[in-house]
Amino acid sequence: MQIEEARVVRHTTLGEGGYSALVLDSPGVAPYIKPGQFVTLRIPGLDGAVLRRPFSVHRTDGTTLTILYKVVGRGTEAMQSLTPDNTINLLGPLGNGFPLELDADVLPVLVAGGYGMAPLYGLARALARKGLVFVGGSSERDILCTAEFEQLGWPVHVATMDGSRGMRGLVTGALDAWLARNPDQPVQMYACGPHGMLKAVSERALQRNCTAWLSLDRHMGCGVGACLACVQKVRREGKIVWARVCKDGPIFDAREIVWEE
């Protein structure tokens, strides 16, 4: 874990859904990022803000790392003003990352909601075997990075709530259809997205008797496990305990998560 002033290399808008890609030169952090880990940024120009903002790492290339984000509040809105050669204070790598081990006959299946696609791309690059990607969103504007996955040789199945792209409905509907067509194929799932989607993927993994690794999203304070703001109930060694999403996660085995309504 290291703090450094990362230089902005590129900052581009992705489509019309309010998403952007921020590419940072981060020689002290980028080369050490594992798929599923995250960084925190101190947003410049955000007067009065004490806490850093956490972001999943979409990809790393040498000394650069890429963050995908959507403007949803003051922090991400302030980030829009960053231009090449600006610097931003960055802390990372943080979290545990996705396990990469796969049994010989197991197909990796990635499931994402919106910009939950971000950490799954680095995972697809790192896994030893190609698999399938399922991505969902409210509309076509929320579907990101499909061409990048296809260039890696990963077929992408899309679902949108309004039917503007791919299957109409939830991404788990597209996943269910594929699972029903392939009942004997061993799979290992990896998912990142909204809480409800992660719970649904967890349920399907349990029904299928397969492993699912979930990237949980919680509001974080410190990002390093000290403030206990992002805790999650999990089952470990026969007991229900509190885990810190930022420190003990953000990647958890679906079988250990205690889901609450």
CATH class of the largest domain: Alpha Beta
CATH topology of the largest domain: Rossmann fold
Principal-axes shape call: globular
Number of domains: 2
Largest sheet: 7 strands, antiparallel
Uncertain regions spanning at least 5 consecutive residues: none
Please tell me how large the radius of gyration is. Answer: 18 Å
Integer average pLDDT: 94
So, CATH architecture of the largest domain? Answer: 3-Layer(aba) Sandwich
Q: Percentage of helical residues?
A: 10-25%
Order of helices and strands: EEEEEEHEEHEHEEHEHEEEHE
In whole angstroms, the N-to-C terminal distance is 34 Å
Q: Count the DSSP helices.
A: 6
Percentage beta strand: 35-45%
Could you say which structural class the secondary elements and strand pairing correspond to? alpha/beta
Number of strand elements: 16
> Which strand order do you get reading across the main beta sheet?
4-3-7-1-2-6-5
Name the CATH superfamily classification of the largest domain.
Answer: Nucleotide-binding domain of ferredoxin-NADP reductase (FNR) module
Q: Can you give me a brief rundown of this structure?
A:
The protein is of the alpha/beta class and 261 residues long. It has helices spanning 74-79, 117-126, 146-151, 171-181, 195-208, 245-248, and strands spanning 2-14, 19-25, 38-42, 53-56, 59-61, 64-70, 87-94, 107-113, 132-137, 156-160, 167-168, 187-192, 212-215, 231-236, 239-244, 251-253. The protein has a 7-stranded antiparallel beta sheet with strand order 4-3-7-1-2-6-5. The protein has a 7-stranded mixed beta sheet with strand order 11-10-9-8-12-13-16, sandwiched between helices.
